[in-house]
Amino acid sequence: MANPIAISKKVITDVLIIGAGGAGLRAAAAIKEKSPFTSIAAITKVSSAQKSHTCTAQGGVAAVDPKDPHDKIIYHEFDTWKGSDCSCDQNVVRRVCSLAWDEIIWLEHHGLHFSRSPEGRIMKRPFGGHTLNFGEIKAFRSCYEADRTGKGIQDTVYFMALKNDVQFYTEAVFTELILDGECCYGAILYDMNEGEFVECRAKATIIATGGKARMYQVTSNCRQNTGDALSIFLRQGLPLMDIEAVQFHPTGIVGPGILASEALRGEGAVLRNNQDERFMERYAPTIKDLAPRDLVSRSIMTEIQEGRGFLHPAHQLPHVMLDMRHLPDVVHDKKLVEVSSFFKTFLGVDPKVELCPVTPTAHYQMGGIPTNIDGQVQIDENTIIAGLYAVGECATASLHGHNRLGTNSLLELITLGRTTGEHVADYISQVTINGSSYSGDFTRSTFDKLLAVSNGSESQFKLRRELTELMNRCVGVFRDEKILLEAIEKLKELKERANHVEIKTKNLVLNQELLVTWELHNLIDVSLGIAASALDRKESRGAHFRLDFPERSDDYHYHTLCWMDQDMNCRLGKRKIDMSIYETEQGALKEKFGIIERKY
């Protein structure tokens, strides 16, 4: 047996940011703007912050210029509310949409090179679900830097972090929150480079670890997106919110799952079935291929299930086709050169002359760690954990409800990243660092157990494959009671089998075998929470679609809270959906933010 795990080092900082993507580093910039002498440590699971998943975002960031003669902020608020299937929090929607243009200007002033029109204005493109005049016509609302907008944002906030002397710890993994009652005083980290576990004390801790969709067979998520923080929250007795809401992006490239950005359809690309029909006209007659992602994904799967799809000969995956042949060369060669080239790189298909195979790919989590509007983590609707914040895709304020509109993810990073950072700056000015001793029992017991297995009978690679196939089949685009019950039973079996995976390498330095086995446990934990929450929500809302309950029900007009006990049993609760725009507006405008029908 390996030597018992020990916490061998202690680090003290004013602010600990776990996750060094767009959300975490935008928060760091806001903290430094308000409190320049604050010490900040940023932890990233990868070898550099510039490898964060934010860099993969392609199409743009939604923002309405208050001087725009056609678009209005209220239209963006309406589209976000309608797109969420009436389940986002309206106070968060109002704050984010109102701050959007300020953040575009902030990014530009700090180095991001937005694409420009010949007149020198920031270029904008349409995206799914974004409209003018409350749904009448598509809106040009997405500001972009070619097809590398996420990379531009990440570079901007990363270089701001370097300028502000943020201390980076790379290839470091978050393993435990340091909690004392309803207060957080930092976290335990596994420093893979040094092969040691570190106690990091801080006045405030910000969780910004991003997505989790690696439990699915086809996903756009990077390898590191394994839901680590979400699993830790569940196992430390804290709730998650709305985790049944998993967004499948409709146009993942068959095989790798990499996105063929919605920007392609914004530029005029269309979806076709095996009868060469533009089938989205059947499902969303007004905005067709630019309908919200959940609707387009279900439409594609319906076409496939009714025999109008294709089967890819190499990957044996069902799919439809994205037609870009009619787009001008400037789209292929300049505007979206990287996305267009993905088809050549991964499938050997030339999008200028050939149809491109696409299929829904697990892409985004609308649910996650519950927070209030200031990013403070909540135990329930009225109770926060002092000193603990969450922002970005791992957090749920909730801007997206049960379905996110394209480009609102990058918008959330920069707006709520800023406001969370500002709140942290105020909070840390009023508190001191708690330096009392901490045992780290949760981390030590977790990793001691993993390393103690000898003569293990299971392979983590085989279990991971079984997990992804199970989640795709039972907790994917379409769900029902029978397959969700099957998923829960099988997930508990997988969890037990995962306890019999032997880690042959006992040295802790860069131990990838240990890391991937730990990640497997995290994925199973979060998958069980997804399945249990999906089983309890007996309706269809946004990305959560039940074949046995295909209509939205007012009985489920709330956020789902999910706790998990040590025996992997889930307890579910509720949090109220904020309706403050509806409650404060008058007349016809008030009706737009009520429980509205969702047609496109």
TrEMBL record:
UniProtKB keywords: Coiled coil, Electron transport, FAD, Flavoprotein, Membrane, Oxidoreductase, Transport
Pfam families, per the entry: FAD_binding_2, Succ_DH_flav_C
InterPro entries referenced in this protein's UniProt entry, alphabetically: FAD-dep_OxRdtase_2_FAD-bd, FAD/NAD-bd_sf, Fum_R/Succ_DH_flav-like_C_sf, Fum_Rdtase/Succ_DH_flav-like_C, SdhA/FrdA/AprA, Succ_DH/fumarate_Rdtase_cat_sf, Succ_Dhase_FrdA_Gneg
Main localisation: membrane
Annotated Fumarate reductase/succinate dehydrogenase flavoprotein-like C-terminal domain residues: 464-582
Recorded topology in the membrane: Peripheral membrane protein
Protein's UniProt name: FAD-binding protein
Taxonomy of the source species: Bacteria, Bacteria division CSSED10-310
